[in-house]
Design a protein that fits this description.
The chain has 463 residues and is mainly alpha-helical. The protein has 16 helices and 2 strands. The chain has a two-stranded antiparallel ribbon with strand order 1-2. Helix 11 runs antiparallel to helix 14. The longest helix is centred in the middle third of the chain and has 50 residues. It is flat, with a radius of gyration of 50 Å.
Length: 463
């Protein structure tokens, strides 16, 4: 059975009277809320004012009513229990002490703060004072090896004295040079005299058999370099624009030359592929007809990749349909596919024939030959169009008077060959280099004619 103390404990009731009697009275039940408020008021914390950030409020007050830390500290206990952990060691003493810089030769005394343990040590930044070792020569060495009619000894001594003072900064040396007492010299003259003496002294004082690194100064090259730089700097805006235009034209010419060479190589590959296919067909006709069907697949001649269509080989394991071998590869473009279908319709060939072994092989060979024929026709049309463009351009230049007119046979009056029809269709077609670059298609004719109006055609001698 539950007693009255258990009930009071469950209802969180207390009091002197109820504890003594052990029973629940009316006051305990009515005044229970007031007792709770008293208990909660004892542990009530201050509310954060509106508009104040939590971090700012945490600096003012904490749950344990501790004062905020004076210094930030790195602890993993959370921001509420952060406290500064100051060390218990003694601080190293610092002293205001004098020092001298060994790099200075005037004996100046300075003062700064420094640790007491470093008292008496050298100034740490003096090690950064690097000086150039300028050679010193004697009177006898000068008279025997360093004498020069264009330089006196007093002038040479003055040069080396300035070299020591200004650490071989020859622009400053030239500015401080005594041009009133001595002859007026340029920076290149001063450098040439200094490095000539250094090389002479290095050769004299070197031990026999040692490999020397003698400094060499080319004064003539330095003068030409500065003169060229001055000319480059003094260019007018018109000259700069003209140079940029010429550079762009040169890049265009090189690009067109590369394109022409590439087209020539592609055309040569097509011609080689056509010749190879023709020879193969002749060899097959002369060969005996009794051959196994497997040998027809294996004994295929080596044809370049650009010749016709390269059908994929189905060598993977598993069942495949023979009609898949007639499917055109993805490398064939839509334009070629449409042209191929048009040619097949003109020849009266079914686009999807019965896929027997012999029909599949012959149908693929036919389409490959038709694509090769289509590419050859395109290449021939491009060459014919280029030839017509060159002929018209030549006639325009001949009318302007820069080139003589063509004769009836297509030869130039001065004995050089022109661009006649017979020459364009002969073997010399691939030797003509179009400097301006003829267009590949009629759509780009207007764009190229504006650039070709001011250029001349390269003449080719008759073979």
């Amino acid at each position: 059975m539950a007693t009255g103390a258990d009930v009071r404990d469950i209802l969180e009731l207390g009091g002197v009277e109820s504890e003594n009697t052990g029973t629940i009275n009316k006051k305990d039940i009515i005044n229970s809320d007031k007792k709770k408020s008293k208990k909660s008021s004892e542990t009530l914390t201050f509310k954060r004012p509106e508009g104040m950030h939590r971090e700012v409020y945490a600096l003012l007050y904490s749950d344990k009513k501790d004062a905020p830390p004076l210094l930030p500290s790195d602890t993993t206990q959370g921001y509420r229990t952060v406290k500064a952990k100051l060390g218990s060691k003694k601080v190293r003493p610092w002293k205001w002490m004098p020092f001298t810089n060994p790099a200075r030769k005037d004996g100046a005394m300075f003062y700064h703060w420094r640790r007491a343990a470093e008292e008496g040590k050298d100034y740490p930044f003096a090690r950064f004072n690097k000086t150039v070792q300028v050679p010193v020569y004697s009177e006898q060495e000068y008279q025997m090896y360093l004498h020069d009619d264009a330089w006196t000894k007093a002038e040479t001594d003055h040069l080396f004295d300035l070299a020591r003072r200004f650490d071989l900064r020859f622009v400053v040396i030239h500015d401080r040079y005594d041009h009133q007492q001595f002859k007026k010299r340029s920076v290149e003259d001063l450098k040439e005299r200094y490095y000539h003496i250094c090389a002479k002294l290095a050769n004299i004082r070197a031990a026999p058999g040692t490999d020397l690194k003698i400094p060499v100064f080319d004064a003539g090259h330095e003068r030409r370099r500065k003169e060229q730089l001055e000319r480059l700097y003094n260019r007018t805006p018109e000259q700069v624009a003209e140079e940029e235009y010429l550079i762009q034209e040169l890049r265009k010419i090189e690009t067109r030359k590369k394109e022409r060479e590439k087209r020539t190589q592609d055309l040569q590959k097509l011609i080689t592929a056509a010749d190879t296919t023709t020879e193969q067909r002749r060899a097959e006709r002369k060969a005996p007809k009794k051959k196994l069907p497997q040998k027809k697949e294996t004994e295929k001649p080596a044809v370049p990749e650009t010749a016709g269509i390269k059908f994929p080989d189905f060598k993977s394991a598993g069942v495949t349909l023979r009609s898949q071998r007639m499917k055109l590869p993805s490398s064939v473009g839509q334009k070629k596919i449409k042209a191929l279908e048009q040619m097949l319709m003109e020849l009266g060939v079914d686009l999807n024939p019965m896929p027997t072994e012999e029909i599949v092989q012959m149908f693929n060979e036919l389409r490959s030959d038709l694509v090769l024929l289509y590419e050859l026709k395109q290449a021939f049309a491009n060459c014919e169009y280029e030839l017509q463009m060159l002929r018209h351009r030549y006639e325009a230049l001949a009318k302007a008077g820069s080139i003589g007119p063509l004769s009836a046979e297509g030869a130039h009056p001065d004995g050089q060959a022109g661009l006649g029809i017979e020459e364009g269709k002969g073997d010399a077609k691939d030797q003509i280099i179009d400097v301006v670059g003829a267009p590949l298609t009629p759509n780009s004719r207007k764009r190229r004619e504006s650039a070709s109006s001011s250029s001349s055609i390269k003449k080719v001698k008759k073979p």
